[in-house]
Each structure stands twice: as structure tokens, then as C-alpha cells.
Amino acid sequence: MSTDITQQISQxxxxxxxxxxxxPTREGLLKTPLRVAKALQDLTxxxxxxxxxxxxxxxxxxxxxxxxxxxxIPFYSLCEHHVLPFYGxxxxxxxxxxxxTGLSKIARVVDIFSHRLQVQxxxxxxxxxxxxxxxxxxxxxxxxxxxxxxxxxxxxxxxxCITTTSDFCGAFNQxxxxxxxxxxxxxxx
Length: 189
Known about the structure:
By secondary structure, the chain is an alpha+beta fold. A hairpin with a 5-residue loop joins β2 (68-79) and β3 (85-95). The strands form two sheets. The chain has a five-stranded mixed β-sheet. The chain is built from seven helices and seven strands; from the N terminus they run αααββββαβαβαβα. It is 42% helix and 26% strand. It has helices at residues 3-19, 32-43, 51-56, 103-114, 120-135, 149-152, 175-186, and strands at 59-61, 68-79, 85-95, 99-101, 117-118, 139-148, 163-170. It starts with a helix and ends with a helix.
């Protein structure tokens, strides 16, 4: 982001510090507004990236039509309701229909959508829809398991809760295919 935007965010953070009763000019907080501005821009960098373009940049013709699964993709995101982190693992599978993509590109798609203000449900669906639209596979399935700091640090303060969301289409509408996916993500190998 531009220096002007960084400066505007920094000024807003300094003002917020004053509103909560802090002195943004004290030694320990002097650089905090700028640090927060830079961190916020990094944590929301996904708005500037095109996930479909990432997939298409490594799209290859391949006669393979079995499940491709990338599991345990770590991610960090910010809850749009409280701007607090939620984090966990994404498991993403697709069944190619003439085209595959680079495996790292699947992880990049997760990264791009997670680096936006999010809710877990939308994140799950955005990943699925992006892969479906870019690659036109026979099916896509996404499962996300996450811990939400908004639930752990405030409100009900339940630290051991894990939220699981899933979305699927195409061949994954068949129970047998979904079961294979779930079996694979449970395996330790």
C-alpha cells in the first residue's frame, strides 16, 4: 500500500490508542501506530491478489482424473467481526478433468483468501469456487478446521473449541468420494 495509506492508518491507530486511555507519545508506543498499520496491510494483502490467476499460471494439460489432495495447509486470517485472528488448517481436494495445477498454487489460494477480513464459512466457499471456476475439475472439496481468538479471548472464552466447515461440489456430491476425502485427511501419512 502507499505511504499515504500507511500514514492514514497509523494516525487512526494513534487516535484509537488515545480513545482507550493510552498515550501514543510515550516511549513504548511511539512506533506502535506505524507497526500496526504495516501489520494490518500485510494481514490483508489478499485483497490485492488474484487467486484464479495464481491457479492458471501453473495450469497443465494432464490426463489424470483421480483425487488430488493438499492437506494440512496452515493459514491465519482475521475475523471480520472483531478483527481478531483465527487460524488452523485447510484441506483441499479436486478431481481434474484434463487440467491440473501446481500443488503449491492450491496453498497460495488458501493464503490469498485468508489474508482478507473473513468468516470461516466464506473462506471455505471462496477457495472451492475459485478452484472450480479456474480449473473446471470434476469436483472440489474443502474442509477447514480453525480456532477463533474472538471466541477464545473474549465473549464465551472457550479455548479448546475448533470450528470445522466444509464445502464441496461435483463428484464430491457422491458419499463415497466424500468418505475417501475424509479418510485421507484423517490419515497421518
